[in-house]
Amino acid sequence: MGEGHLLANRYRLDEVVGRGGMGTVWGAYDVMLDRRVAVKEVVLPPGLTPAERDVLYERTFREARASARLNHPSVVTVHDVLEEAGRPWIVMELVQARSLQDVLDEEGVLAHRRAAEIGLQMLGALRHAHEKGILHRDIKPSNVLITDSGRVVLTDFGIAQVEGDATLTQTGLVMGSPAYIPPERVQGERAVPASDLWALGATLYATLEGRSPYERPDAMASLEAALTEPVPPPRNAGPLASVLEGLLAREPAHRITGAQAQPMLAHVATMPEPIPPISFRPPDATLLDEPAGGYHEQTVVDEPADTVLDSVTFEEVTRLDREGPGSAAMPSYGPRGSGHAPPPNLHPSSGHSQGRTAGPRPGTGQGTGAGHGTGAGHGTGAGHGTGAGHGTGAGHGTGAGRGSGPVTPDPEVRTLLETEWAVPPVPGPQTPPPWEQPEQFRQWQQPPPPAHLDRRDRERRKTIVIVTVAVVLVVVAVLAGAFILRDKLNSSAAAAPSETVRTALTG
């Protein structure tokens, strides 16, 4: 048979879409129903005995009957089965899709969510088949089709076993793919629904690891591994680890059922997509240039600033002397009770400080003769010592006060009082701030709009009103004219028949 052959005068063979161990799949056209279909040609190997040929014939018809009993989105629909040229042909639904094996070969292992979605649809097809009493017995990635829309279709029920039918497996012959055969079938036991679930787990294992658990270089090595070796733990199972562990249990009685596996797969299939980690690259360290030759970094050490006065000259905080009888009008500046202050410049004749007065001050006050030094100062004579005050004669102490006699004011030296920290009042009339003079600073406010702008606005409004009234009058006039014209036309139409009747009567 070749391309263009019309099978059973109905199905035109167009091209080969796939080949397998059990035959060739053609893309064909149903000329009667005007649709695309797939036709599976069962190729019988040469050298078969009549009994073996009969077994293959029966297997082909069994596949057709098994698929025809199933009605599920994940199972290929069988349309017809016929025999021509000494071999059977199965006409089925044409699914334009890649096999799961092709996807793994082209894209590599799948993500957990996508693998769970595929497994969930495969499990739905298997549970539907098991409810109908049908076992697939050859589940593997090459028998799973995946469309571009994400639909998963389970194909090739060629060695399916239907409940109630006699087995077609010969003694000592194991049917199926060695890498996906469950251990109990390798041991020669009869297939059960748990056997299909083990093959489903092996297929999911391959989607995550890239190979089946018992994939070996040859078929005999795979069968030996299935008999003697445990399933290698998957490295990329992730959230599907518990599902794979339950499906790939060695003993069928210890495997989870389809009803138990379905919610586990559904949970992983509905998980949100993992957020890719944000790669953070620290900024490269900034390298400093090496200093040029002959350059030597110098460390500058801040020298302490020169003090204005030595610590010896610092005294207690200056306050205003208590005024006594006979004190001058202007107070002297100095410590409270003493009138002492540290001046920035020392006069040789005036000791520690020169007080500030408005004029000569008798009695208490800061006067000459008291200072740090000999003569008038902190020492012998009049200074900080014994006698009256801090020195003999006039000084810091009790007795005759801080000094006596007239005091010469120093215009350069003045210690401010607490009460003089504020701005001194300015003699004369005070001018209030601008915000207290609204009448004088009215120009700071936003001026009203000019009168000519307001007049222009009023004129514009008046013009708009006049134009609007004129338009309304014109519309009213047009409507009135239309009504008058309609009345005249109606009157003329009514008068015309009357004239005709009168003419006829007179005639």
From TrEMBL:
InterPro entries: Kinase-like_dom_sf, Prot_kinase_dom, Protein_kinase_ATP_BS, Ser/Thr_kinase_AS. It is an enzyme of class 2 (transferase). Residues 317-456 are annotated as: Disordered. Residues 362-404 have a biased composition (Gly residues). It comes from the Bacteria. Its EC number is 2.7.11.1. ATP binds at residue 40. GO terms for molecular function: ATP binding; protein serine/threonine kinase activity. Keywords: ATP-binding, Kinase, Membrane, Nucleotide-binding, Serine/threonine-protein kinase, Transferase, Transmembrane, Transmembrane helix. The keyword Kinase applies. Residues 11-265 form the Protein kinase domain. Residues 424-436 have a biased composition (Pro residues). PROSITE patterns: PROTEIN_KINASE_ATP, PROTEIN_KINASE_DOM, PROTEIN_KINASE_ST. The chain crosses the membrane at residues 464-485. Signal peptide: none annotated. This is non-specific serine/threonine protein kinase. It comes from Actinomadura viridis.
